[in-house]
Protein: GtrA family protein
Amino acid sequence: MKQLKQLPEFVRFVMVGILATILHYGLYFVLQQVINVNIAYTLGYALSFIANFYLTAYFTFGRKPSWRKAFGFGGAHLFNYLLHIGLLNAFLWMGLPKPLAPVPVFAIAIPVNFLLVRFVFKPR
Structure:
């Protein structure tokens, strides 16, 4: 029964995640054509992080953003960013083309991110 109550929250998280991922990938896709892929990926991640924080707070979990949550969210995303950039470089090293390398990264890192962010925003 508890899992059924969490379904709408998970659906909202997925919606926010899709929007943030589109923003991240869109910026990366454009920028990787003119600058280093790691810089392009980082810029896309940073801008999507800001949008993701506010949408996650208000829309996904119905909580007002606070500095405490911002630091927790930032900590979760610091870990997530390191996972992203490590996986990106691993997939590039394996020979995936630059435009496609983020796809498997997202498939691995997004579920990990949900667990970390949920911990920050859900009351204990």
